[in-house]
Amino acid sequence: MSGWQNEPFGIDVKAGETKAFCMCGLSKNGPYCDGSHKETDKTPEIVTFDEDRTIYACGRQQSSNRPYCDDTHSGQQ
Ligand code: FES
């Protein structure tokens, strides 16, 4: 298995809330950035949400729509 976990992270977000999602894959606190990207040329994806909702962040780091889940995990068990 690659990534942080085999399933997406379901995260309740609030309007106006900003989160930094790891795009380098090195974070020890996935799906969030923990600063580990400093040794790479990657940067986190900073997202400010405009409404209260539940998002699904990719846990396997293989989605083509990161930081969001695109259901890639469904066919890769
Ligand atoms: S730790 Fe991965 S983008 Fe910051």
How does this structure look, described?
The chain has one domain (9-75). The protein is mainly β and 77 residues long. The protein has no helices and 4 strands. The N and C termini lie close together (8 Å). The chain has strands at 9-13, 18-21, 45-48, 53-57. Strands 1-4 form a two-stranded antiparallel sheet. It binds FE2/S2 (inorganic) cluster. FE2/S2 (inorganic) cluster binds next to loops.
In terms of DSSP E residues, the strand content is 15-25%
Main β-sheet: number of strands, strand sense, barrel status?
2 strands, antiparallel
Biggest sheet, spatial arrangement of strands: 1-4
SSE pattern: EEEE
Helix/strand-derived category reads mainly beta
The radius of gyration over CA amounts to: 12 Å
List the bound ligands.
FE2/S2 (inorganic) cluster
Query: Into how many domains do the coordinates divide?
Result: 1
Task: Give the number of DSSP strands.
Answer: 4
Task: List its salient traits.
77 residues, mainly beta, two-stranded antiparallel sheet, two-stranded antiparallel ribbon, 23% strand, binds FE2/S2 (inorganic) cluster
Q: Could you outline the blueprint of secondary structure elements for this entry?
A:
Blueprint: E1 9-13, E2 18-21, E3 45-48, E4 53-57
Antiparallel strand pairs: 1-4, 2-3
Bound molecules: FE2/S2 (inorganic) cluster.
FE2/S2 (inorganic) cluster binds next to loops.
